[in-house]
Amino acid sequence: MPELVFFSGTMDCGKSTLALQIEHNRSARGLQGMIYTRDDRAGRGKLSSRLGLVTEAVEAGDDLDFYAHVVGILTAGGRADYVIVDEAQFLAPSQIDQLASVVDDLGLDVFAFGITTDFRSKLFPGSQRLVELADRIEVLQVEALCWCGARATHNARTVGGRMVVEGAQVVIGDVNRPGAEVGYEVLCRRHHRRRMTAAAARAAALSPDVLPVDPATSPPAPNAPAPRDSSDTPQAAP
């Protein structure tokens, strides 16, 4: 039976790489798929991974009707055996419904890849609708790691290395951007809640735990005996 499958995970966990792998495996068996993406790091009409792999894709703008687009291709004599959609979190809920119609009415498998929550830990509308409609949800097994080494579960938006929690839900950026730019970083829940990015952790590590104090100028400890004058020291008898 055809399925609507949602592959979810944080940034930097290999979603686009898996999408490209599925495309490779199926095309190698003589199948032909439709590939869609939205706001890919490589530019419009591209599906790319951080490993350097890239392929052509249809840019899924706000006005794209997935069901009508696939039907139009089939009606014109084209071929579509499956559908791959990357960056599905950016889609409107109505577009997710269209993908479900591609599965149910056209009998095609649809593989959607996306981030579940935004930098505020709130569900993207597209991801929420996928959770509601998908036949199967697959959490990617290649775990992204927080700077502390724990499994990363949350996406953080950064500006100048500092985590921000306000702003538009969609601002295009990527991990490992220069500090002055808008970038993203994956964190474990504990450090996301504390807003502790890698840059913030380094700054905290460089801060001394105590202020340097010159012992000669430091006040005596509480209840410490006052130093005696040398004239009070008993002299040895001649």
3D architecture notes:
The protein has about 240 residues and is of the alpha/beta class. About 25% of the residues lie in helices and about 20% in strands. It is built from 6 helices and 11 strands. The protein has helices spanning about 15-25, 65-75, 95-105, 125-135, 190-195, 200-205; strands spanning about 5-10, 35, 45-50, 55, 60, 80-85, 110-115, 135-140, 155-160, 160-165, 180-185. A 6-stranded parallel beta sheet has the order 5-2-6-7-1-8, with helices on both faces. A hairpin with a 2-residue loop joins β9 (about 155-160) and β10. α2 (about 65-75) runs parallel beside α3 and α3 (about 95-105) packs parallel to α4. The radius of gyration is 28 Å and the shape is elongated. The relative contact order is 0.15. The model is unreliable at about 210-215 and about 230-235 (pLDDT under 50). It is an enzyme of class 2 (transferase). Belongs to the thymidine kinase family. This is Thymidine kinase. Pfam families: TK. Its EC number is 2.7.1.21.
Write a concise keyword list for the protein shown above.
ATP-binding; about 25% helix; 3-stranded antiparallel sheet; Thymidine kinase; 11 strands; alpha/beta; about 240 residues; about 20% strand; 6 helices
Topology of this protein?
Layout: E1 4-8, H1 15-27, E2 33-37, E3 46-48, E4 54-56, E5 58-59, H2 66-75, E6 82-85, H3 93-106, E7 109-114, H4 125-133, E8 136-139, E9 154-159, E10 162-164, E11 182-187, H5 189-193, H6 198-206
Parallel strand pairs: 1-7, 1-8, 2-5, 2-6, 6-7
Antiparallel strand pairs: 3-4, 9-10, 9-11
Helix pairs in contact: 2-3, 3-4
Family: Belongs to the thymidine kinase family.
Subunit structure: Homotetramer.
GO molecular function, one term: kinase activity
